[in-house]
Specification:
heterodimer; A: Farnesyl Diphosphate Synthase; 19 helices; B: mainly alpha; two-stranded antiparallel sheet; 8 helices; about 45% helix; elongated; 15-cis-phytoene synthase (chain A)
Amino acid sequence: MSGVLLWVVCPKGNAAAASLLGLGGGKLGRQQRPGRVRVAAMSSAVANPVARTSEERVYEVVLKQAALVREQRKEREKAAGTDGLSNWDLLNEAYDRCGEVCAEYAKTFYLGTLLMTPERRRAVWAIYVWCRRTDELVDGPNASHITPKALDRWEQRLNDLFEGRPYDMYDAALAHTVSKYPVDIQPFKDMIEGMRLDLKKSRYKNFDELYLYCYYVAGTVGLMSVPVMGIAPESKASTESVYNAALALGIANQLTNILRDVGEDARRGRIYLPQDELVQAGLSDEDIFRGQVTDKWRSFMKDQIKRARMFFDEAEKGVVELNAASRWPVWASLLLYKQILDAIEANDYNNFTRRAYVGKTKKLVSLPIAYGRALVGPTSTKVAELTRI
Amino acid sequence: MTVFSLYSQISSPLSSSKLDPPKALVLFASSNGRTPLRLGFSRTAPPFRVSCSSSSSSDDPSGDNLRSNFCIIEGPETVQDFMQMQLQEIQDNIRSRRNKIFLLMEEVRRLRVQQRIKSAEGIDAFGEVDSNEMPDIPSSIPFLPHMTQKTLKQLYFTSLSFIAGIIIFGGLVAPTLELKLGLGGTSYEDFIHNMHLPVQLSQVDPIVASFSGGAVGVISALMLIEANNVDQQGKKRCKYCHGTGYLACARCSASGECLSVDPIVTDATDGPLRVPTTQRCPNCSGAGKVMCPTCLCTGMLMASEHDPRIDPFD
């Protein structure tokens, strides 16, 4: 968890920015007709989801988000409560502190946020700080004192701040952010749920479980940030597809993080790779703990990297649907994080002892490339209809 | 209640240290087993449940009965947790907890002694150094690594030998070289002239010159060291609360008071319905600040998973 969450809250490779940026585009692995899934989603909202895969459950959340965005547009004017927000100096100071924390713990990500508009930048910082504080509850110095009750109370504070009653100054910054942008509470709650999960688990049986975990810690960040980044007004793509792509980017970032930090996580006794796929490749936990690169390991890593790249491709389809001002930072972070996969390959798949690192030059070169790709706007109606299978 | 009063009676002799330590430990151990302070908690249990809205009923994994009602995260109602205690009770609670802290520290010390004995006997493959409790002394001089007693001795030796060397050079070697070999010997005036500096500089009295040079060196060195020290102290501070341990309360915007939220009582007159009254802010109980959950009010940046000392790659 430590290494994996590292990117979410402390992304050296701009991961949180990447996942923070919603991408539009196609669907994930399972191809289903939207209508059928919607009906299925509504009926299964009542029924108990026993046999459904994680991907389906997560997709349901995505649909709900998209629907809520449409609802919230009608209720935008509801007063968000001004108890903690009447003092603008304090609010500005809170936002500045959020920026300081972000700059301290995630330098590349902070630099990425500088590419955004000032309002969005502050909102992203506030979200980042909340996510980081939540992560530190289970990963930080006081993790030993954290009980399920503590997480419940943290969730209660989250509920309060969404109703306009923030508890401390960082909550106040987030409360102001959610009052200005149509951010929903569900991804935040899911992230806390992910923390609860991480208190219990250190092995993942199959990709389905791993997918759910990646959703909890990284996909949620993508969903949180789409309302902040904003969808381009001229975009013809459906809201669901944009959220889906944001989700895909979050998953891709998390998988990249996992693949980069295999050695580091193993040293802490955690393996974030699906057990059944390891067995299929003829590997075991001991092989990972031993930390030797064999041909079996190389072929296993090749498949994993291929899957991560597939998620990146899904995500790319949606970046173009974002607001013009947000496309550049999103592309930048996407390209930067994707390069980490290249770095793993360049290290001969040795993620046990060598850290896949993207050099400063490469990072700087990615910026103008990202700018170029950001100039491409939303797809035309025809293409959008074709991709929306 | 009887258990509790017994406990408070125990705590007073302990604070005057009439009992010798092993017995005190035994008493504490047994009283821990009975969890006497639970009585104090159980009377305030309802506020816990109201504010918690906990969905999970699982007990905490630490297995410490005394702590099972305590939650590390603050919420809007947590300061009320001890509201039903009387003042004397609160003071007794504080005193008994202080005693416990003192005794626990002593236990830790003794456990450490055992740990050192045992690890000296056994072969530790990893050879991990327990560096979490007492961090290394960071150096005040920029660019120097961590200091210990040994490196301090090295520092003394190096500095003194430098000073001796410079004194010997300036007092013996340079004049000898000039006299015997004719090396050097540029007078101050010639030097100033060669450097094309204003002629007045050459009129400076040598004592003043050397004093000024020495003073400038010392003062700038002290300045750099202090700047580095402040920098390092800053690094040790919790970034969220800037070392204060507290964050501004959002409900009262750090003032301590907020508007009264009692419902309007309509009266017959048509005058203003409500005079704005302020009440003590319930979030922070009037303090204007709330606990920083990252550093738990210590204000320090404790060693964490992302600490560079244990992060192998950075």
